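Sharing a chain and its predicted structure for anyone who wants a worked example. Both blocks are below, sequence first, tokens second.
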Amino acid sequence: MFHRIILAVDLADPTVHPKGLDQALELATQSGGDLRLVNVQPLLPATFMEYVPADFDEEQEKRAEAALDAIAAKLTLPKERVTTAALGGGVYHELLRDATEWGADLIVVGSHRPVMSDYLLGSNAKTIVRHAQCSVLVVRD
């Protein structure tokens, strides 16, 4: 069973129920394990920095933390078994780094139906599957 489960949360997804949450919650409940909700905010290119407020990154992080806390508050797991992390950077780099540092044994990540750009550039889910040091569960819509 999995005891340290990370759920990659895409806050840009318009639904209020993150993809993969049900599966991650069920696995954590069955195993008596911990669940970590992680969101990675991409960094803005330097060329855009002059068009955004100076505290833009900090505000993005605060909004992400608040959204993750709101999701965590609705979970049926005991509070001491749920943690959150709002990170900034490359999605799969930061998610994989956090999984390694936290000692995750499963990453749950949502994936959409592939579009042409995914075939040309690749998807975050694909890269996470290829490079993760632990098991990965990909949840499709």
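Comments welcome. The radius of gyration is 15 Å.
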